[in-house]
Amino acid sequence: MTTAPVDPMIGRLIDGRYQVRSRIARGGMATVYLATDLRLERRVAIKVMHGHLADDNTFKSRFVQEARSAARLAHPNVVNVFDQGQDADMAYMVMEYLPGITLRDLLKDYKKLTPEQTADIMDAVLAGLAAAHKAGIVHRDLKPENVLLADDGRIKLGDFGLARAASANTATGQALLGTIAYLSPELVTRGVADARSDIYAVGIMMYEMLTGEQPYVGEAPMQIAYQHANDQVPMPSSKNAAVPAELDELVLWATTRDPEARPRDARELLDRLREVEPAIRHGVDPTATMVLSSVPPRTTTQTAATTVLTGAAVAAGATAPPASPPLSDADGGGPDATALTQTAARRRRRGYWILALVLLLTGLAAGTGWYFGSGPGSYATVPETRGQTPDAARALLVDAGLEIADAERSDPEIAAGSVSGTDPADGEQVNRGSKVTLYVSTGPAILPVPQVIGAAEADARTQLADFSVAKDAVEQFSGDVEAGSVIAVLDADGAPVGETYAERGKLTLVVSVGRVPPVEGRPAGEAEKLLTDAGLTVKYNDPVFDNDVPADHVKTADWTEDPMVPGSTVVLTVSKGPDLVAVPDVVGKNWSEAGTELRDAGFTVEYNLLADVAPNAFVVSKTDPAAGESVARGSKVTVNFAGF
């Protein structure tokens, strides 16, 4: 049985901040992973562009464009983008993580959705798309795979990989982009797209949600593209009789081949969807009162109430009751008619009082609802603004009904010029109209660096708590600083830190592991063990003779680095002991010959003779050490002459 290859990204630390945990999805341009933001301690989705596309400037610019497009949008129905960057040759983008499924997954499980479910999902999709269109962004790749359904019920629009800034007409300039099943006719025929092209894709999605299938199928993509360009999308009710007429009309409006006949943007389609949602949910035709325009009055004596009743009955498919002629004396309606008239008058007066009471109560309810719902008595949630531009943050606060007071403060994590937070903090409930202080970061504060040289490592870390000290210290041998104490503090560039440094800036401690063990004069085996136990590597020079160091003992230990760190190399030179040489036999030779031969053998010579006698007049009688005795090369040999 073969095992699937392990993704090399799993476990990788991207840009020193994002720890990759698992893979979520893989697409044609990038792979999405679940990761942990170690700095903010939260789960994020990180999108990494495929390595083979890194050298393609077109793909790289499209990847960066996605981050910029999504980052410009601050909307509850659009996936938030937190960060974008480059780690070595890898481009990445950090987004909010939404545990859940996509609309495509939902359609696979349920085939088709009810009109109510379709209306709920499309309301959220169109709200997010309306924000994009308002910001001048065309998505260009709307499809069920890009609609995210979170476990907590949130619905968000993501994947702005093909998004472009909208001009009068946004041309692709190259092959068609997007998914062929959702391409608008103008994209197929002319390769141009604007907000109305997104509307067409929304209409195709609605058709698929209501019927469980796409309107056009074919064996080849070009067959599907041809149908988009030349055919009108059919009504969903032709495939699913349960689809109400209101949704039929929305789908046909959104998928009209002529872009001029479609809604101008997502906001216009959203407004119409919300108008017909009550009818979709309750089966009430919102245009019922308009049916009367096509129904002629039965008699000229009908009252307004009878007309409305008739209109409602016609709208409901019922038969209107015949109109009653007015009573007259001829019909025997004299006194009875008077009584009925008085009764009707009393009823009208009672009806006026009831109507007035209903209006009063309605006004009170509306006023109370306004006061606590959107008026001074209502509450608003402070939106999350940290890391956003000041303009985007102000827009969010204004949309929440809050007033803004600008201020600045330092922040070790947020770059200067971006929003570092608010007071009250995001997520808190405040009265609508309250003033919220918006803090713009001035970058990290510059702090004095405590002097920790010579301090124990644990004490140094405590004193440097305002900085980001690396978890692992650099170990180094030192003959001056005891083991476990700090030798130096390095900044992010590896240079000794100065007197001041940025708050939360990265620092690294250099900690002593003690001195390099002294091994000169020790047996070679013992010396090697001491050095390897200290974490050093041992190498050997060729052994040499040494008259003062016993054989197999270390004569010298040479360092290969300065300073020495664990793993550095020490080169040992081991003694072979003294270099022994036999004393030559010079007995019977004169002074000069004997001295020359002894010096050539490596000895120093000392003569035992009278100062006033010529040396050459004497013959050597003996030497000390004696001839043939082995002594160390370089030793002194005393020469004695005959007569002494």
TrEMBL record:
Gene3D superfamilies linked: 3.30.10.20, Phosphorylase Kinase, domain 1 (3.30.200.20), Transferase(Phosphotransferase) domain 1 (1.10.510.10)
Its EC number(s): 2.7.11.1
Composition-biased stretches (Low complexity): 316-330
Superkingdom in the source lineage: Bacteria
Keywords: ATP-binding, Kinase, Membrane, Nucleotide-binding, Serine/threonine-protein kinase, Transferase, Transmembrane, Transmembrane helix
Transmembrane segments: 352-373
Domain Protein kinase: 18-280
Keyword ATP-binding: yes
InterPro entries named among the record's database cross-references: Kinase-like_dom_sf (IPR011009), PASTA_dom (IPR005543), Prot_kinase_dom (IPR000719), Ser/Thr_kinase_AS (IPR008271)
Domain PASTA, chain residue ranges per copy: 375-442, 577-643
Catalytic reaction annotation: L-threonyl-[protein] + ATP = O-phospho-L-threonyl-[protein] + ADP + H(+); L-seryl-[protein] + ATP = O-phospho-L-seryl-[protein] + ADP + H(+)
Annotated Pfam families: PASTA, Pkinase
Annotated GO MF terms: ATP binding; protein serine/threonine kinase activity
Keyword Coiled coil: no
GO BP terms, alphabetized: negative regulation of fatty acid biosynthetic process
UniProt-annotated stretches for the region Disordered: 316-338
PANTHER family: MITOGEN-ACTIVATED PROTEIN KINASE KINASE KINASE 20-RELATED (PTHR43289), SERINE_THREONINE-PROTEIN KINASE YBDM-RELATED (PTHR43289:SF34)
Protein name: non-specific serine/threonine protein kinase
